[in-house]
Amino acid sequence: MRNPFLIGEQIYLRTIEPNDLNEEYISWFNDPEVCRFNDHHRFPMYRERLEDYYDSVIKSNSAIVLAIITQGTDEHIGNVSLQGIDLVNRSAEFALIIGNKFWWGKGVGREVGRLMLQHGFENLHLHRIYCGTASDNEGMKKLALALGFIEEGKAREALFKNGEYRNLLTYSILEHEFSF
């Protein structure tokens, strides 16, 4: 394990490091399947753009973006974040991307989500953590509910992806609803 920040059973989370900015990482954001439900695939990703993103992440006072690393092999398989951190209203948005498709459906999202929610509520003293997803993103909807998020509402035709409008579902969890 290299510089772990939060440790789970099959993964650990650490800050994104300069040597993570490799071709595999870039390929996640150019893969239409990986980016099927997010905004990353609107413009091509290339090294300079990824470096700009990295620079913004390490300078941010309103986001914690962590690399998801497999235990044992130290492979960077995705990123997770609490972003838009608002310490006055004590809220933040949860976001996740697992770029390595081998790890899809293996419980990584749930493990990562629990680690980030616990960190947000215990260490950042947040009151509310929220997320949103396209209405046809079954994986994220299932993950949100498994983590204890409550569906709050629907923004009708708020997302335009692959030539059609989709509804945006919003979810949140409050600190007293999360069990550590």
Q: How would you summarize the topology of this molecule?
A:
Layout: E1 6-7, E2 11-15, H1 23-30, H2 47-59, E3 63-70, E4 76-86, E5 91-98, H3 108-122, E6 128-134, H4 138-146, E7 150-161, E8 164-174
GO molecular function: acyltransferase activity, transferring groups other than amino-acyl groups
Protein name: N-acetyltransferase domain-containing protein
Pfam family, one: Acetyltransf_3
Name the overall outline. Answer: globular
Largest sheet: 8 strands, mixed
User: Could you say which structural class the secondary elements and strand pairing correspond to?
Assistant: alpha+beta
Biggest sheet: strands side by side, in what order? Answer: 1-2-3-4-5-6-8-7
The parts where pLDDT drops under 50 for at least 5 residues are none
**Structural domain tally:** 1
What percentage of the residues does DSSP assign to strands (E)? 35-45%
Distance between the termini: 24 Å
Describe the structure.
It contains 4 helices and 8 strands; from the N terminus they run ββααβββαβαββ. It has helices at 23-30, 47-59, 108-122, 138-146, and strands at residues 6-7, 11-15, 63-70, 76-86, 91-98, 128-134, 150-161, 164-174. It is globular. The relative contact order is 0.15. Helix content is 25%, strand content 36%. The longest helix is centred in the middle third of the chain and has 15 residues, at 108-122. It is α+β, with helices and mostly antiparallel strands. It has one domain: Gcn5-related N-acetyltransferase (GNAT) (Aminopeptidase). Strands 1-2-3-4-5-6-8-7 form an 8-stranded mixed β-sheet, with helices on one face. It comes from Candidatus Magasanikbacteria bacterium RIFCSPLOWO2_01_FULL_40_15. InterPro entries: Acyl_CoA_acyltransferase, GNAT_dom.
